[in-house]
């Protein structure tokens, strides 16, 4: 599949088949992250694969919103990959402070893109989730209190194999050449 076909096919999947995902495919998704670029080659990501059915049953509820009805679909996801922010190297930390940028957070976003594109290429659906119960995830997965859980990606075989029609802003709303557009908010 060529790159533009791949990015057109990738979407946030919220309906999965009751079918486990092969460990090799999940590992391949994490290997894609290993190849992702990062500021000063810092590679600040740490990944935890949650695919044991018993652990998945315990994990899915901590992804759900409690009083706010979000992520209820996680009960049907057969595997999760937790992206935590590990320690960045010194040059990335210093550069981030100097330039007032959170390079590690940006790097984790790039990593999530690589991971989900690798999943799509293998016929898997995925959903990047930032609404999560970080305290419960840390307790369940024995993650130290000092480490930030940034994203969780649900992965499985999608019920629907055809991508939904994508609703995107018009190019003139998001692109310009040479200067900021006065009509942008």
Low-confidence stretches: none
Q: H/E series, N to C?
A: HHEHEHHEHEH
Query: Residue-averaged pLDDT, rounded?
Result: 91
Question: How much helix is in the residues?
Answer: 25-40%
Total helical elements: 7
Give the strand order, joined by hyphens, for the main sheet.
1-2-4-3
The fourth-level CATH homologous superfamily is NADH Oxidase
Beta-strand content: 5-15%
Please report the distance between the alpha carbons of the first and last residues: 36 Å
For the record, the CATH architecture stands as 3-Layer(aba) Sandwich
Shape category? globular
Blueprint (SSEs and pairs):
Layout: H1 3-9, H2 23-34, E1 45-50, H3 53-59, E2 79-85, H4 90-99, H5 103-121, E3 125-129, H6 134-141, E4 148-156, H7 171-174
Antiparallel strand pairs: 1-2, 2-4, 3-4
Question: What would a concise description of this structure say?
Answer:
By secondary structure, this protein is α+β, with helices and mostly antiparallel strands. The chain has helices at residues 3-9, 23-34, 53-59, 90-99, 103-121, 134-141, 171-174; strands at residues 45-50, 79-85, 125-129, 148-156. The radius of gyration is 18 Å and the shape is globular.
Question: What descriptors fit this protein?
Answer:
185 residues, alpha+beta, 36% helix, globular, NADH Oxidase, four-stranded antiparallel beta sheet
């Amino acid at each position: 599949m060529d790159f533009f076909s791949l990015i057109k096919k990738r979407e946030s999947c919220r309906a999965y088949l009751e079918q486990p995902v092969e460990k090799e495919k999940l590992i391949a998704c994490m290997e894609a992250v290993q190849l992702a670029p990062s500021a000063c080659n810092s590679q600040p990501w740490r990944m935890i694969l949650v695919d044991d059915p018993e652990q998945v049953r315990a994990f899915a509820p901590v992804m759900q919103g409690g009083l706010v009805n979000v992520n209820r679909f996680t009960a049907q996801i057969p595997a999760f990959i937790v992206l935590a922010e590990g320690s960045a190297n010194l040059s990335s930390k210093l550069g981030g402070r100097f330039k007032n940028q959170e390079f590690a957070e940006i790097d984790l976003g790039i990593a999530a893109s690589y991971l989900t594109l690798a999943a799509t290429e293998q016929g898997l659906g995925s959903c990047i989730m930032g609404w999560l119960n970080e305290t419960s995830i840390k307790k369940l997965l024995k993650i130290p209190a000092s480490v930030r859980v940034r994203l969780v990606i649900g992965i499985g075989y999608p019920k629907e194999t055809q991508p939904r029609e994508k609703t995107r802003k018009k190019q003139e709303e998001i692109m310009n050449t040479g200067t900021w557009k006065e009509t942008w908010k």
